[in-house]
Amino acid sequence: MDAAASYRDDMSSSPLTYRVRAHAPAHGSASVRAGSSEVALDVDWGQAPTGEPGPAELLASAVAACLLKNLARTRDLIGFDYDDATVEVIARRQDSPPRFVDVSYSLVLSTAESPHRLELVHRNLRKFGTVYNTLAAVCDVHGELSARVATRHVHCLSQDGED
After folding, report:
1. Rounded to whole angstroms, how far apart are CA atoms 44 and 28?
2. How many CB atoms lie within 10 A of CB 71?
């Protein structure tokens, strides 16, 4: 069975469970173990930033990882060809009530794929992204996908909450 078929089989089974474990001593460095990696965290309150990611950066990172993982999924399922991908995510929050109000992204691919295929991929990223759809249910999530071929940069598609 190929990897894409195996992935489709996983999608039809019961819900998947994800587990992380975080630890924060009263004084010292906090961290979270996710998969086989340990990531230092900034969870200090009222202190100068430690330079480690805090909850907001981890949420934005989850959006970036969701887009990139679904891009790889699309590569395997429909044979979408790209050399590399770079994504920048910006999450905006408000203080009262405390919540995220806007998540935007810019995904740049190095590819020779047609504008039609880029549009198809972008639509699939929005449709099948678990983190993307979870956040889109509670705040505005929007972004653009563009392609870079060799030394030129071509804008291909933008999305402002409308399909």
Report:
1. 9
2. 21
The identity of residue 122, as a single letter, is H
Which tens digit of pLDDT belongs to each residue from 74-84? 999 999 999 99
In order of 30, 38, 66, 98, 142, the CA distances from 87 in angstroms are 27, 22, 11, 26, 13
Among candidates 37, 45, 95, which has minimal Cα distance to 61?
37
Model pLDDT for residues 110-149, shown as the tens digit of each residue: 999 999 999 999 999 999 999 999 999 999 999 999 998 7
Read off the DSSP letter of residue 38.
Answer: E
Query: CB-based contacts of 26: which residues, under 8 Å, 6+ apart?
Result: none
